[in-house]
């Protein structure tokens, strides 16, 4: 058995969770849902269609935000998740790391909710939404709902090129693969056992990650791209040139400004069509290849919504409250959704939508038995848009819900005491009250900053014990930071960036470019803040600028210091995490700080897996795993009296934990 084949032995078993085979398609937690008993209030039923990174995250967010059924004495909550794939939810962002051999398949599994109110059906794709009977239909039966959340994601875009449909029944020929699912990654890794030459169509983020991964496995790689430079959506010409120089040093040839005219296939006995090469235009060159990977973008999976009669453009059209304008009980989040601000295609936006929608639906669960709140996305105007809900001591919401709601005074006269509660992010679920445990008086978060006139902006009186924040709206946490996870190439871009960006006279741009060294740093400043940045080949500077951008830290009076100070004196790693401030962000994808990790340790987390389950650190891009492992080892030594001090799980590849960098 080859090394590549050994990685793929029984991938389904690596992803499966014990006790998840009790139902057709599998139940995540085994056993029956709790019996509400005779005379109990009818449960509020939420059906989540999609068990990927966003769907599974939403189920956990909703259950944690709503809190235990008995806590607020409202309708019990029941969540059903319908997953298309047979596997437990896994981190799709790290599939390119599997191709590169830098991550094991089993390490991609995401933490489960661990809540008996959730029932997960794997391998049970939804067939239709029957809006008249309010049920989601699958081959296993019908699942009634009070609210249905579409988190169906997106599929790989297959270009209309001659030769790509030459497989059996118009499928892809042998040797041609997209990279969107775990099965795709397994097939690509298996194909590298016999392939010597590979072509990747598309030089976006995924295309470059796959190209670097295949080169790391020893293949000769050519990247074909129609744009003027690699990653031209994020990189300008100078940054693209620096990236191209680094790719050349890795043995990767980049062909820009060309398109694929034809995929050349050949037949081998009864095996059918097998890829042999690609023909480019305008050069009419033919590049021979044994392996062709399509990285040509994605297409939102909106078929279910379209057949249900919902408005679909590129994706499922939703309003500010993430509900369809055609049905206030049908929501869409993640890649399949098309919100008013547009979709970024980044997981951070899906997670932000998950937190926001979880807070909104938690309010519905809490209040609908007694008072009818306007549902997000419904037609509300005038006084109807300002429904009031008062919570008694017996009805007070869970701590998670209170943290998930931002409180502000806005758009009113100074004497008006009416408060507007808007959903914000829950930083560390399912153990959210970390900020409260540190004694902070005012509970704030990364605000969703919904428009005041949006249906999701619900005006309510604060729950008992809920501190009131100052009269201003915190800025929304950015969700547009792009990090390239490529072996040998470091790229991070955020905000205003890329060759296609529009000219704005209010923006001040500063650049430091060194293409011969494969390094480029560019910052865009406006109004005293960093509004965009592009960093190639300088990971420490990229980390510093990411912290400045996401935290909305004011820039120096002379913004040139953003370039020169880190270059002249890079931030030294902390010799001892004791000197690392608790506010230091460790996991940017999930907003997890050192303080959050310490709090999770004190609550019983004893390994990187436990910490990931409690705080969700390492479950995004995976770049913080070494730091989290280092913190866990430090806590084990610094807190020897705590029980169960098992060694932290080492990072993939057996590397020793790196020193913990201080980014702010």
Chain-wise SSE layout:
Blueprint lengths: L2 H5 L3 H5 L28 E6 L3 H14 L2 H4 L4 E6 L12 H6 L17 E4 L4 E5 L4 E4 L2 E4 L2 E4 L3 E3 L19 E3 L3 H10 L5 E5 L3 H12 L3 E6 L11 H13 L2 E5 L2 E9 L5 E9 L4 E3 L2 E4 L3 E3 L2 H5 L8 E2 L5 E2 L2 E6 L4 E2 L8 H21 L31 H5 L1 E4 L11 E4 L10 H4 L44 E5 L2 E7 L12 E7 L4 E8 L2 E8 L2 H12 L10 H8 L16 E3 L4 E2 H9 L5 H8 L9 H14 L26
Parallel strand pairs: 1-2, 1-7, 2-3, 7-20, 9-16, 10-11, 10-16, 11-12, 18-21
Antiparallel strand pairs: 4-5, 5-6, 8-17, 13-14, 14-15, 19-20, 22-23, 24-25, 25-28, 26-27, 27-28, 29-30
Plain-language structure description:
With 664 residues, this protein is an alpha/beta fold. The protein has 17 helices and 30 strands. It has a 6-stranded mixed β-sheet with strand order 3-2-1-7-20-19, covered by helices on one side. Strand 29 and strand 30 (592-593) form a beta hairpin. The radius of gyration is 25 Å and the shape is globular. The chain starts with a helix and ends in a 26-residue tail after the last helix.
